[in-house]
Design goal:
alpha/beta, Oligo-1,6-glucosidase, domain 2, 6-stranded antiparallel sheet, 14 helices, 20 strands, about 15% strand, binds 1-deoxynojirimycin, binds calcium ion
């Protein structure tokens, strides 16, 4: 395992209640905390309508997780076979990127049948088996619901584009010219080209698409489209899936002056939420298209999304971990939550299938994404780990669909050729250094990124404060050190992380605020009583999680 920094050699401690310091002046560890049965607590927290607040999610590209039949393509039976490993890591819920049939112009985000399963991945029976197997373990399965657009190979679009008079002629967004005065937007970004209108020869009209030309936008001003897509959601809810990640849901309806979360789109979201609420314990998470705040997706806190990704501190927060002030992180966390309705739950990420691997964002400094992950896993919100992040998976070596394939390489489970992913030829080459960065190698190394994730997930497990507690930023008197206080379930925790990569840093917390010696749960720190304060010294690039009083 490539562990370039001396500081990373410091052992990661997972201990019930001890300070890692050998300093004789350090206070004895506190023994005052009543310890709960954490396994029983985890079970309780993950049961009932609030389960999603306490779950650790794992984003899965089924195509790249585990192949079961040697064709080199990951599939649902393969994923089922890996549930034990995922659960052992500390995963409670899966978000599957699209598993529906597709023309694969956008890796499945171009759906050609809303109620089927991509034959590369298996069958409806396999999906049912996955849901059953997950539920039997107390795990959940969330599907990607791609509602803004379909594939141009979807039967609806084939019919709609055949002529101007067919029953579905108005199911998509058509125009005689490559523009329309009531639509004030183009493609979502340059990734998808510069032209949002493509000519259909049969109709001699242009259709609108925010994404690739193979992804025509549905017309949500047509009530039949509203009904048909809600029916698609109902289909999966009836099969027992636990909810949805809703792709670019803010973009459903356009107007001349706005194309993101306009009132018509919000009205649709409320209908979707009302549908989910007919089923027990289902949840949905919005892919926000606003990178500053996810607040619009929460509605009044009960009528829209259970969770929404906040990318403002998500995709980009690898960068502050390079000597900046801790406020670079806390400001982002605070700003995104400003004006959120009570109970709003953000979904926290450090990467995804759409952006460079965290390894790249962190400029290959392993501790940077560990520290980013530490904040992700201790701050207020529900963490979503993108598969491979727990290995510090490197970027891939090739692309087939587009450059985002570099962060979609197959999962290396073992060090042998095929890496336990396939007995055949993988559909996409493995990432760089897969012989080192794999579950087999890393799970046997206490200092690996995999062991880091497993240890931290175990440390936070069954502790209500992390999923549903309050979050306060505590001033520790050192601008390089972020001190996050979490309180809930009658317990209190301190997550302390340094931005400094060259020297140890000390934060001081008044005894008036933290009465007993903070008890180390995870990480590395020296704790000492200095007059009326606790001094907490974190090694360069380090972090520590404490139980506090
Ligand atoms: C967001 C998805 O995350 C991305 O992968 C996809 O290309 C677009 N939505 C279009 O569906
Ligand atoms: Ca396969």
């Amino acid at each position: 395992m490539n562990l370039p920094r001396a500081a990373l050699a410091l052992s990661l401690v997972l201990a019930a209640a001890c300070s890692s310091s050998d300093d004789p002046t350090a206070s004895p560890p506190s023994t005052a905390h009543a310890e709960k049965d954490r396994a029983a607590e985890a079970k309780r927290l993950l049961t009932g309508p609030d389960w999603y607040r306490h779950a650790v999610f794992y984003e899965v590209y089924v195509r790249s997780l585990q192949d079961s039949n040697g064709d080199g393509i990951g599939d649902l039976p393969g994923l089922i076979s890996r549930l034990p490993e995922l659960q052992a890591l500390g995963v409670d819920a899966l978000w599957l990127m699209p598993i529906t049939p597709t023309a694969f112009a956008d890796s499945g985000y171009d759906v050609s049948d809303y109620t089927g399963v991509n034959p590369d991945y298996g069958s409806l029976a396999d999906l049912d088996a996955l849901v059953s197997a997950a539920h039997a373990r107390g795990m959940r399965v969330m599907l990607d619901l791609v509602l803004n657009h379909t594939s141009d190979q979807h039967a609806w679009f084939k019919e709609s584009s055949a002529d101007r008079t067919n029953p579905k002629a108005d199911w998509y967004v058509w125009s005689d010219a490559p523009s329309r005065p009531d639509i004030g937007c183009g493609t979502f970004n340059a990734q998808f080209g510069s032209e949002a209108w493509t000519l259909s020869k049969a109709r001699n009209q242009y259709y609108f698409h925010r994404f690739y030309a193979g992804q025509p936008d549905l017309n949500y001003r047509n009530p039949e489209v509203v009904k048909a897509t809600l029916d698609a959601a109902r289909f999966w809810l009836d099969r027992g899936v636990d909810g949805f990640r809703c792709d670019v849901i803010g973009l459903l309806v356009e107007s001349a002056s706005g194309c993101d979360m306009i009132p018509e789109t919000q009205a649709y979201i409320r209908q979707l939420r009302a549908l989910l609420d007919q089923y027990p314990d289902r949840a949905m998470v919005a892919e926000s298209t606003n990178y500053e705040t996810a607040v619009p997706y929460f509605g009044d806190g009960h009528d829209m999304f259970h969770m929404a990704f906040n990318f403002g501190f998500g995709y980009f927060w690898g960068f502050p971990f390079a000597g900046d002030a801790a406020s670079a992180v806390s400001d982002k966390l605070e700003a995104s939550r400003k004006d959120a309705p009570p109970g709003a739950q953000e979904a926290l990420v450090i990467g995804s299938h759409d952006v460079s691997r965290a390894y790249v964002a962190a400029k290959k400094v392993e501790s940077r994404w560990r520290r980013a992950a530490f904040v992700q896993l201790t701050a207020a919100g529900t963490p979503f780990i993108y598969y491979g992040e727990e290995l510090a998976l490197r970027p891939g070596k090739a692309k087939i669909v587009d450059s985002r394939d570099y962060q979609r390489a197959p999962m290396p489970w073992t060090k042998a050729p095929g890496h336990g992913f396939t007995t055949g030829t993988p559909w996409l080459p493995f990432a760089d250094e897969a012989e080192l960065t794999n579950v087999e190698v890393e799970s046997s190394e206490p200092s690996s990124t995999y062991s880091f994730y497993k240890g931290l997930l175990a440390a936070r497990r069954g502790r209500e404060a992390f999923g549903a507690g309050t979050m306060t930023f505590v001033d520790g008197g050192n601008p390089a050190v972020l001190v996050l206080e979490r309180e809930g379930g009658g317990e209190r925790y301190l997550a302390v992380v340094t931005m400094d990569e060259s020297a140890p840093q000390t934060a001081r917390l008044p005894v008036a605020r933290v009465s007993g010696a903070p008890a180390l749960l995870f990480g590395d720190a020296a704790v000492a009583r200095e007059g009326e304060a606790w001094s907490i010294t974190i090694p360069a690039e380090g972090m520590a999680l404490f139980r506090a009083e």
